[in-house]
């Protein structure tokens, strides 16, 4: 069974026009290989619990990271394209939404938004699902994809990306469990990029991509979110990666919080610095947030730590 799918994954129907694709991707379109690698990453995290593949934000984000790692910034692609055309491989069957059975045609590849209006996701062969769910056979499948569709120097970059994503995911899960102050705050010996990615995964998941201070929540179909994971007290001072030392903040609130124009009270209300009203400033909608309650994570163990906030009010906030 494994050898059959190894052969099938090495024979994907992909565009082989050499005027469009370079030696980096073995002169073939990398869309389907990237999608399959992304599915394998989701499975490695234990988040693929059935043969059903949903075009989720996490899957879209994984696909985008692989694409950006290999292709120039000017090259754009959305995951709807390979998600639709993978159906030609036989092991991938699109599941239309009720009433949309006649709408599953090529136009759904125009955007993720369009894809999601028409399909619920895709079912894969149960045998392939079992292979992807098992670490040993999953890595055999990954190896044949890398060997077939990518140049040797690119294979190492893609393997490193998969490995670091898994480490970051495991670190994020550890942080979410370390809610008590008596537990380890972080792992200074872990590479910074993995710590940062793991902290980001934990915090953004807790707040469901919503800004703690202003409440804005915006996700692009291509897998981008408006919020960032912000430390209340800097990692460099504390080695504290607990989610309670973090908040999900949009870029404006993140900048304003870091520079002392915003903070939080003991009652978890937004504080706006009087300096925001200085003559040269035009804070606009930020002023409407003054003394408004914050948006909290559903898990109360991870609400912003008042000791950390007390430090911010004393050392950073511009009174």
Q: What's the arrangement of secondary structure elements?
A:
Elements: H1 2-9, H2 31-44, E1 52-53, H3 57-70, H4 80-85, E2 92-96, H5 112-118, E3 119-124, H6 126-133, H7 135-149, H8 152-177, H9 192-206, E4 227-231, H10 235-238, E5 246-250, H11 251-258, E6 262-264, E7 270-272, H12 306-315
Antiparallel strand pairs: 1-3, 2-3, 4-5, 6-7
Helix pairs in contact: 1-7, 2-3, 2-7, 3-8, 8-9
Range of helix content: 40-55%
Question: What would the average pLDDT be, to the nearest integer?
Answer: 90
**Poorly predicted ranges (pLDDT <50, ≥5 residues)?**
none
Shape, per Cα inertia axes: elongated
Termini Cα gap: 68 Å
User: What fraction strand?
Assistant: 5-15%
Structural class: mainly alpha
Number of domains: 2
Radius of gyration, CA atoms, in whole angstroms = 22 Å
Structural overview:
- By secondary structure, the protein is mainly alpha-helical.
- It has two domains: 149 residues, no CATH class; 130 residues, no CATH class.
- Strands 1-3-2 form a three-stranded antiparallel sheet. Strands 4-5 form a two-stranded antiparallel ribbon.
- A hairpin with a 5-residue loop joins strand 6 and strand 7.
- The longest helix has 26 residues.
- It is elongated, with a radius of gyration of 22 Å.
- The mean pLDDT is 90.
């Amino acid at each position: 069974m494994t050898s059959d799918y190894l052969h099938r994954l090495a024979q994907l129907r992909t565009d082989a026009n050499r005027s469009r694709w370079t030696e980096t991707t073995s002169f073939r379109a990398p869309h389907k290989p990237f999608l399959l690698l992304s599915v394998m990453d989701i499975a490695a995290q234990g988040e693929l619990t059935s043969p059903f593949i949903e075009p989720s934000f996490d899957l879209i984000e994984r696909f985008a990271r692989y694409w950006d790692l290999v292709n120039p910034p000017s090259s754009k692609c959305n995951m709807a394209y390979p998600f639709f055309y993978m159906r030609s491989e036989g092991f991938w069957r699109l599941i239309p939404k009720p009433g949309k059975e006649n709408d599953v045609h090529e136009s759904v590849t125009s955007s993720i938004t369009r894809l999601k209006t028409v399909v619920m996701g895709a079912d894969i062969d149960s045998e392939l699902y079992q292979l992807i769910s098992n670490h040993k056979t999953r890595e055999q499948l990954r190896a044949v994809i890398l060997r077939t569709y990518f140049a040797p120097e690119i294979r190492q970059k893609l393997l490193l990306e998969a490995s670091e994503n898994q480490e970051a995911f495991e670190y994020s899960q550890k942080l979410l469990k370390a809610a008590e102050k008596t537990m380890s705050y972080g792992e200074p010996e872990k590479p910074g990029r993995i710590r940062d990615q793991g902290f980001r995964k934990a915090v953004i998941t807790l707040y469901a991509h919503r800004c703690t201070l202003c409440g804005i929540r915006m996700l692009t179909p291509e897998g981008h979110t408006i919020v960032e994971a912000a430390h209340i007290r800097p990692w460099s001072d504390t080695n504290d990666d607990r989610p309670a030392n973090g908040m999900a903040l949009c870029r404006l609130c993140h900048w304003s919080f870091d520079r002392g124009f915003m903070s939080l009270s003991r009652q978890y209300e937004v504080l706006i610095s009087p300096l925001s009203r200085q003559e040269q400033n035009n804070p606009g909608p930020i002023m409407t947030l003054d003394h408004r309650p914050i948006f909290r994570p559903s898990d109360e163990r991870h609400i912003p730590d008042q000791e950390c906030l007390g430090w911010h009010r004393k050392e950073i906030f511009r009174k």
